[in-house]
Amino acid sequence: MRKLTAILSAAAIVTIGAVAGAQTGASASPTAPLPSLSLTTTMISFTPVTVASGPLKPGDGYVLAGRIMLHGKADGLATAACTWTVVKGPHLRVCTIDYAMNNGLIATTGFINSPAPGAPVTLVVEGGTGAFKDVRGYGKLQPTPTGSGVTLFLTK
Fold first, then answer.
1. 55-111: per-residue pLDDT in tens?
2. Cα(63)–Cα(81) distance, rounded to whole angstroms?
3. Considering only CA atoms, which of 131, 55, 30 is closest in space to residue 152?
């Protein structure tokens, strides 16, 4: 019993030290909010990916590409690969969407929890390159008849 108490006490001290260190580190380097980024895409291509013929199945999906417009000017390409993971009840699609702009790339992952083609995509910003090096954040992609409208809220 004494050995168990000593082990638990040591574990508690290590845990408290780790939490205090994490809090100190977090306060030493706060995330700096960047302005939100709003852009639109115009679809260039859309290709369905079907695992096997028949009704929709997990693993089916699509890939697409679009031109990015930022402040009314062409600013690169967007690519997306989306896969259905749940096709009955609450449908779920997961997507990887990258925005390759003239000053850097933003990598996102998204999910769609609706079978509707125009359902919004909830995005998580995973990182980037160039002007977007080390960014994180979140956003929303709203499909349109010709592409999408995207708003990203970024932190560094």
1. 889 999 999 999 999 999 999 999 999 999 999 888 899 999 999 999 999 999 999
2. 4
3. 131
Contact 40/149 with Cβ under 8 angstroms? Answer: yes
Give CA 138 to chain center in angstroms: 7
Place of tokens 């580190």: 25
Q: How far apart are CA 49 and CA 56, in angstroms?
A: 11
How many angstroms separate the Cα of 10 from the Cα of each of 1, 16, 17, 18, 22? 14, 10, 11, 12, 18
Exposed, middle or buried, 67 (CB in 10 Å: 0-12/13-18/19+)? middle
Phi/psi of residue 92, nearest 5 degrees: -140, 125
Question: What mean pLDDT is predicted for residues 38-57?
Answer: 93
- Say yes or no to pLDDT of 6 above 50: no
φ/ψ of residue 71, rounded to 5: 55, 40
- For the stretch 123-148, pLDDT in tens is 999 999 999 999 999 999 999 999 99
Task: Please give the single-letter amino acid code of residue 139.
Answer: G
